[in-house]
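re: ur question from earlier - yeah i can do the single chain one, its not a big deal. heres the input i used so u can compare w yours
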Amino acid sequence: MKLLLAVVFCSLAVGVVACSKCKRPQFKPTTDDDKVFYTMGAQTGLRYQPLSINDRDMAAFCQGLSDGSRPGQKLAVEATEVRSLYSKVLNERLHKTSAAQKELGKKFVEKFLQEPGAAKTNSGLAYKILKEGTGKKPTAEDRVEVHYHGTLVDGTVFDSSVERGQPVPFFLSQVIKGWTEGIQLVGEGGKIRLVIPSELAYGEEGAPGKIPGGATLVFDVELLKVFSPDELKKEAAKNAAKGKAKPAKVNVKKK
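and the output i got, formated as C-alpha cells:
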C-alpha cells in the first residue's frame, strides 16, 4: 500500500518518463483503498490546475512523491534548497496562465461592447440589460433571490441555478465584486448579462476545477426578488424557530 499513492499520482506521467510517444497506462481504482488514494490524488491535481502542469512537471512531482514515500530513500533535492524558489516559480506560473486568460477576456469584452445596449462601468464591469425590471433596484447590503447561468468566454458552463432548476437567495455583500456591482444595475423582475473581468471575480488563482486563473466570466442573471426589511425579519425568526443559523449558499462567493 505504501506505493499506491505514488502510483495514483504518477499514472499520468509514467508513459512520459519511459517514452514521450508511448500511450500512458491508466490506473483503474477498484478497491476501497484504491478509491480513497485516487481521490486524494485527484483533489491535489485540481488544486494545481492553475499552474498549468506539463509532462515534465508531472514527472518531477511523481518522482519526488515516490522518493518521499520510501523510508530511508535519499532525496534528489532537499526542501531547504528550494524554499526560496517556491514563491518565484509558482507566481510566475500563475501569472503566465492568467495572462493568457486575461487576453481572451479582453478580446471578448471588446466584441461584447459592440453590441447594442452594452456598456462598461469605471471598475471594468461590462453589462447589458436584457430585460428592464419594474421593481426596486437592490443596494449592496440587500438580500436578493436570483436565477443565473455562468459560463467562461468560450461558452463552457461552470455554474447554473437555471440548470439546477432552483433560484438562489443571498446577500449582495457576500458574493464576488462583479455581482455586487452588477446586480444593483437592474430592477426587480429584470435580467442582466454581466461580463466580469478576473479582477472583479476570482483573480489570478481562479477556482480550481471550474474557473481558470485570470478568467473573465459571463453571467445571465434574472433578479427575481429584493427582500424587504420586514421579510428579512420574518425569515430570521422562521429560521431561528427551525434551529437554522446559516443563510443559503451561493457558488459565486466573495474571495
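DSSP finds nine helices and seven strands in the chain. not sure if urs matches, ping me
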